[in-house]
Structure formats: C-alpha cells, structure tokens
Design a protein that fits this description.
Elements: E1 9-14, H1 34-48, H2 54-65, H3 70-79, H4 86-94, E2 100-110, H5 111-121, E3 127-131, H6 140-143, E4 146-149, H7 155-167, E5 174-178, H8 184-192, E6 196-200, H9 204-211, H10 215-218, E7 221-224, H11 235-251
Parallel strand pairs: 1-2, 1-5, 2-3, 3-4, 5-6, 6-7
Length: about 250
C-alpha cells in the first residue's frame, strides 16, 4: 500500500438523505403513530424546500422522535433503501489504497440514526456530523465517530472547514454531496474552497437556487439527475470524484 503522504488527500461529505431513495423520510421512524408521521413529513418538507429553517423545525422533530428505542432505530437503519452505488462509493473512498480520504455523513438528520446507519450499513468507516437528536441511544464506539453537531444548514460549511484543517486535502479535492435546499451552503462552500459541490438527485428548490449561480461558482458545481425513466445512481457521484482526482493529479493543480 502506498504511504498516505504520497497519495492524493481528499475531504468528502455527503448528506445522509442524499444517499437514500426518496421513500426514506424520518416519518418512517414514527410510522406507528400516523399523526406524528404526518407532522414529521410536513416538517421535513418545510425545511428541505426552504419554507422554514432547520433550526425552526428541529425542536418539533426532536419532540416527535423522543420516545424512540434503540431497537426501533436499528430496524429502520437496516431497512433504509440506499441509492444504487451509495454503499460502494463510500466504501471505495474510505478504504482506498490510492487516495487518503476523510469521509463524513454531514446531515441535518438525527445523529442517533446517522451513527447507527454508519455502523450497520457502512462498516463504521465514516465520520458523522448530524443534529444532536437520539445521541443517548448510541454506544461509545458510535459516539466516537461524531465530529460536530449540526443545528443549522450553515453548519455543513463548518464540517468541511474542520475536516480540511485536520486532513489538509490536496488542491481541488473537497466535495459535498446533497439533494435539498438544506445542502446549498455545503455545496457552495465546497466550491468556494476550490473543490466541487455535487447536487445529486436535487429537489426543485435546490435546482432553482443553483440556476442563479454566477458562472465562476457554477463551474464548480455538478448537477447529477437521472435520465427520464431511470433511477438515480450514486455511482455517478463516484465517477465525478474519480474524474476530479485524475484531473488534479494529472495537472498538478
């Protein structure tokens, strides 16, 4: 294996919901209570479309999740429908012998759920930055992967800054992947840092905001949408990252 100091170094953060199919909502965690599930869906729609900030809905989401047990969250984590290629891309980056990658789930999702998903679906290889909800359900090993609480969308920019300061990525190799308006700060900040923001299967609100970017910023944002009639493939995110690594390594920029 090559020594890590001789390998390209990169920082890669991705929204948890950006790796899962649209059928995944936190409402599934409380599906046995129809009223709570309906309210959870409403809150999620409000902040993912920009009608409310995450800080504005988090107290109510935390209230709805307060009675969840460890076994319920584990069952939900095991059943999450990941996009094709999501697990493979995250494993290939975090375990690569050719690049040294700091990879994290960076999400307004519940830290308790995100950390359990990391353990059950991603082998515990990822770091986790998430909203401080359900943390009491985690064991010490899971808590050790938590790097920053996220209580507002802008905190995703601080996750990138934290990892960049610690990992010192090679020029241009900073990425954030997201799918809703709550990911706009992370996407734009990755671009501002000279990397790439990746809008994967973006919702209408995020697409609309990306349309108005100035040319310099737009050149550092990639929008990945499935062709009509096809399902989104997270493997396309991996292809964008590999192309970027090759480009920066080849040019030495």
């Amino acid at each position: 294996m090559a020594k890590s100091e001789n390998r390209p170094r990169l920082v890669f953060t991705t929204d948890l919901n950006g790796t899962t199919t649209p059928e995944n909502t936190f409402a599934g965690l409380v599906h046995d209570n129809p009223a709570a599930a309906a309210e959870m869906r409403r809150l999620m729609e409000a902040y993912t479309t920009g009608r409310s900030s995450f800080a504005g809905v988090m107290p109510d989401m935390a209230r709805l999740a307060a009675g969840l047990t460890r076994s319920r969250v584990e069952d939900y984590a095991r059943s999450l429908p990941l996009f094709p290629g999501a697990a493979e891309v995250l494993e290939s980056l975090s375990s690569s012998a050719t690049v040294s990658a700091a990879c994290a789930l960076s999400t307004t999702g519940f830290a308790g759920l995100a950390a359990i998903v990391n353990g059950l679906r991603h082998g515990g290889r990822l770091l986790v930055a998430a909203s401080p909800v359900l943390v009491h359900l985690l064991n010490d090993a899971e808590k050790s992967r938590l790097i920053r609480p996220i209580t507002a969308e802008a905190d995703k920019t601080r996750v990138l800054d934290d990892l960049a300061a610690l990992h010192r990525p090679s020029p241009g190799l900073i990425f954030h992947v997201g799918d809703t308006l709550g990911d706009l700060p992370g996407i734009l900040h990755a671009a501002e840092l000279g990397g790439l923001g990746i809008a994967f299967n973006p919702n209408a609100a995020l697409l609309e905001r990306l349309k108005g970017l100035p040319p310099d910023s737009a050149s550092r944002v990639r929008i990945i949408r499935p062709e009509p009639g096809k399902s989104p493939d997270y493997g396309e995110v991996g292809a964008v990252v590999r192309e970027r690594i090759w480009e920066k390594t080849r040019t030495g920029q």
